[in-house]
Amino acid sequence: MVDKIYDPKTQSPEHKHPEPYEHDLNPEAGAGQNYDLIGPHPEKDNPRTAFDDKEAHRQLVGWSDDDLKQIPLLPAGSRLEQGATYLDLCDPARREFTATGDMRVRPDGLYVPKTEVHYHLWNRLLGIRSPERTGQATTT
Fold first, then answer.
1. Which of these, 12, 74, 81, 123, has the minimum number of CB atoms within 10 Å of its CB?
2. How many Cβ atoms sit within 10 Å of the Cβ of residue 129?
3. How far apart are CA 23 and CA 31, in angstroms?
4. CA separation for the pair 81, 55 (Å, rounded)
């Protein structure tokens, strides 16, 4: 019997090795890789938001409840997607960062995925105050 050859263009990485050895040879296959929606995506399925978290409320003083409800927080231990941009509300500098495939949400982290937040809110999270970039411009 001939084993199938792994083709990265048509197969996801969790099927890289023959069945009896798959888990031993590649226990976290595809972890952190951006292969469409393969694997769990807690930020998309009824996520916890900044509205639901007391520490997020402390970090975002003065934000409306409606705005807080639009800011998803990843669960502790969630694997971050390689190349995706995130922000940790607990970071005093409030810098966005690009994740590598081996990164996970720290137990005390309040990680926000940029892809799930409107750009006006994202700019406010970064501390940008320009009304044009935060959606708070007034029209006369």
1. 12
2. 9
3. 13
4. 24
How is residue 11 written in tokens?
């197969």
Q: What is the pLDDT of residues 57-91, one digit of tens each?
A: 999 999 999 999 999 999 988 889 889 999 999 99
pTM for the structure as a whole: 0.68
Tokens of 115: 């892809």
Q: What are phi and psi of 106, to 5 degrees?
A: -65, 155
Tens-digit pLDDT profile for residues 17-61: 667 767 676 676 666 555 544 556 665 677 899 999 999 999 999
Segments making up each domain of the chain, as ranges? 1-30, 48-134
Q: ∠ CA(25), CA(31), CA(36), 5° rounding?
A: 125
